[in-house]
């Protein structure tokens, strides 16, 4: 294979061809694309395989379309909090314009631009279903049944991501439920929508579709929303959703669901009936590892793949699992971070350069996946967090203190939004005097989280944070209020 990139489509030959590469990447979402980019930059020949659209879940059914739906919702909410502006934005959102904008950001579900990017870096693209047929060997079955066998000299990287996990309810397939894919790509606004779940997808989609005109009911099995964050995050988001008109029922599970004459009827474990036009299940994720031939290389199909800090699958010296499939942090930005680590590790090993073990915070160690994973939930108010919650830190054996601040004490917050309502917490390791976690809830706090990520990842001493002076008057002054509360 020449170094000039190619996109391989149908092959009329009935006999499978065989091609060697330094690296084979299975899955061409953001994670796979970044692995390919790093290995190509290191001079390694690289093939990348994709069964759907180049660009993956994030580009077409997750990050990009969901944030395109949510941006006008958040912008309108912010404008309504500014005196002199709120009266100009009192009407409803133009749902058709919002959906059209969403379609633009998904490139209308066409991947030409991302194909071009991969070809420009010199990666060879194979379209079809890739399955292992033995160690270092992947057979690609194309859309017309043609096959290509790819042999990796150095590494195969599994970057196939995750899929929505549906509950085991009889007849659920006949109901045609929404998953995150349908929720972010629906061409119309449902009149009534049931959202099952209380996590990120559930809260973001409840926020978006309610603002676009749906009557939304959220059914949560647990005690509240956003259970993996500090409890006040879910409480403030639930309060705002309820004020917007969303009905939230906690401690509620679905016993059965049917579609009667086009209407979804969900019966709860308490015997209540909830009717809607559509029902979204946002109840977890499963790895896309069930149909890629892992059994041929001694790995259990359908499982999350265990890896070391260089993303090498446990017990192998050539197989990498990057992104959602390793279950370390199911977030696009963390998957891309892992891809940079994996690409560097693959290149080093291919070139015979030993990795320094252990190598915390080194070029070949995905240390941040243990200590400093940031996330933003684009609800109104936004919720953003990095690192450990107070409870997680205690359970991990740290001697910690939680320092809480109300944003009402921050001058910049009041200027940002009239009646700004929000809360922040930092979790301090009292032995090391460093931050283990930070959580913000309030309008615009997504832009604050990187400062917290730097503090947590960099293990910046609390004393030194006094010299990181926040600009006045900005919401970032919350850092000064943190330090004053900690000292006081």
UniProtKB/TrEMBL annotation:
GO terms for molecular function: dihydrolipoyl dehydrogenase (NADH) activity; flavin adenine dinucleotide binding. Binds 1 FAD per subunit. Disulfide bonds join 58-63. GO terms for biological process: 2-oxoglutarate metabolic process. InterPro entries: Class-I_Pyr_Nuc-Dis_Oxidored (IPR050151), FAD/NAD-bd_sf (IPR036188), FAD/NAD-binding_dom (IPR023753), FAD/NAD-linked_Rdtase_dimer_sf (IPR016156), Pyr_nuc-diS_OxRdtase (IPR001100), Pyr_nucl-diS_OxRdtase_dimer (IPR004099). This is Dihydrolipoamide dehydrogenase. NAD(+) binds at residues 197-204, 284. Belongs to the class-I pyridine nucleotide-disulfide oxidoreductase family. Keywords: FAD, Flavoprotein, NAD, Nucleotide-binding. Residues 373-479 form the Pyridine nucleotide-disulphide oxidoreductase dimerisation domain. It comes from the Bacteria. It holds the Pfam family Pyr_redox_2. Residues 21-336 form the FAD/NAD(P)-binding domain. FAD binds at residues 67, 130, 160-162, 324. Its cofactor is FAD.
